[in-house]
Each structure stands twice: as C-alpha cells, then as structure tokens.
Amino acid sequence: xxxxxxxxxxxxxxxxxxxxxxxxxxxxxxxxxxxxxxxxxxxxxxxxxxxxxxxxxxxxxxxxxxxxxxxxxxxxxxxxxxxxxxxxxxxxxxxxxxxxxxxxxxxxxxxxxxxxxxxxxxxxxxxxxxxxxxxxxxxxxxxxxxxxxxxxxxxxxxxxxxxxxxxxxxxxxxxxxxxxxxxxxxxxxxx
Length: 191
Description:
Organism: Castor canadensis (American beaver)
InterPro entries: ANAPC2, ANAPC2_C, Cullin-like_AB, Cullin_homology, Cullin_homology_sf, WH-like_DNA-bd_sf, WH_DNA-bd_sf
Number of domains: 2
CATH topology of the largest domain: Arc Repressor Mutant, subunit A
Low-confidence stretches: 92-110
Helix content: 40-55%
Strand order of the largest sheet: 3-5-4
GO biological process, one term: cell division
Oligomer: single chain
Pathway: Protein modification; protein ubiquitination
Largest sheet: 3 strands, antiparallel
CATH architecture of the largest domain: Orthogonal Bundle
Shape: elongated
Protein name: Anaphase-promoting complex subunit 2
C-alpha cells in the first residue's frame, strides 16, 4: 500500500495580488497565500477570527500575516484587526513597519528536516537489506548493525536508539514493517 504525505511547509506559491490601484507579483509560502485568500471573502478580519478559520495559533498566524503588512497589502488598524489596503495612500507608506516574518528559520528548519529525512532514507535502505537477508531482527540488533556498517566513515550519519525506534514505529504505522514478539520484519509483499 502506498501513501501520500503532504509537506505543507515546503514550496512557494507565485501569485498576482490585484488591488484597486496596483498589482503585485509575489512568491510566498503556501500558508501565507492561504491567509491572504481569506481576505477575498471578507475585507477585514480580527486575528482571533482568522486564527479559527485557518486553524493556526494566533502567534504563528501573526508572523504569517506580517509578510502582507510588509508588502503594503494589509494594515493592522485597530490593533489585532487586519484589513485590505485597496488604494495605497502616501501615509500608508510612511506608517509601514517592517517585521521579521521568521520565514528564514522555517526554510532552515525545512532543509534541516530534509537532511535528516535523507539520512533516515539511507538507514531504511540498509534496514530493508538486513531484513531481507535475516528475515527478522530486534531493535537492538538493527541498531548495532547500523552502527557497524552505516555510522562509520567520512559520511558519518548518526541516529540514537530512541530515534531509530521512533522511525521503525513510523514504518510499522505506514505498513512498511511488521513488529511482533519484539522483532521487526518486512511484510510478505515487500520481501
């Protein structure tokens, strides 16, 4: 069985934002695009209302909205209420406040997660080969074999026992492994 796992934090959306007096072409994260799309239906939102609709914590949502404040698409007036700036006025440019939207750390975390996922994929290849040859192995035996064959040399990849156990349990949930009587084995269709 195959499954599809969405990675909502990755990628960019290129979109044209059409306002009364200007059109902006921007590349933003999918979450930032979704936030702005809600302003098509309603010109003004409080942070709490938008948080409920988008299903995102208020603090995180505020950071996502900040990119639209920086672009001059939204304004916060009164505090906690955001509305669309259809026509840019000179005083809007003067009052524009630049806020760190924290997206650099998001992409950094995403790339760090991608790197970890690549390492785990390397482990998975070895684990599949071990289980194909030896049929079933305990967590400790898999770990010691990985330490012997994979976690040595110049391209040092590390994983601790708890991380490995979590990764193997994820493979069990994804039906790529079977766990019974304290040992892991590949499903019959995989071997």
